[in-house]
Design goal:
This protein has 92 residues and is of the alpha+beta class. The chain contains 2 helices and 5 strands; from the N terminus they run βββαββα. It is elongated, with a radius of gyration of 17 Å.
């Protein structure tokens, strides 16, 4: 699955659209601004598409893994437990 998360100054609440590929989740500018650097893990919203059903939207941060991985984690958010893990490894 391919998805995009975009900040949008012209909306008041989180919404999603799916036109072929990818799925695009739009976040209000004020909701998304600074999200990567604050302690909020996820953003959630229930959307009511035109079919009368509810669509639950959930976007969560992807934290860097604490163990060694052979994958690119450059876009991951810093893991809040990394400092604790480092102190435990160093016996502090």
């Amino acid at each position: 699955m391919i998805y995009n998360v975009k900040l949008n100054d012209g909306i008041g609440e989180m919404r999603a659209e799916f036109i072929e590929d990818p799925i695009t989740v739009h976040l209000p500018e004020d909701m998304g601004q600074g999200w990567k650097d604050n302690s909020t893990v996820g953003v959630f919203h229930e959307m009511a598409p035109n079919n009368g059903l509810a669509l639950s939207l959930q976007v969560e941060k992807d934290f860097a893994c604490l163990d060694e991985r052979n994958e690119n984690q450059a876009d991951d958010c810093p893991n809040p437990k990394a400092e604790i893990a480092m102190k435990n490894e160093n016996g502090v």
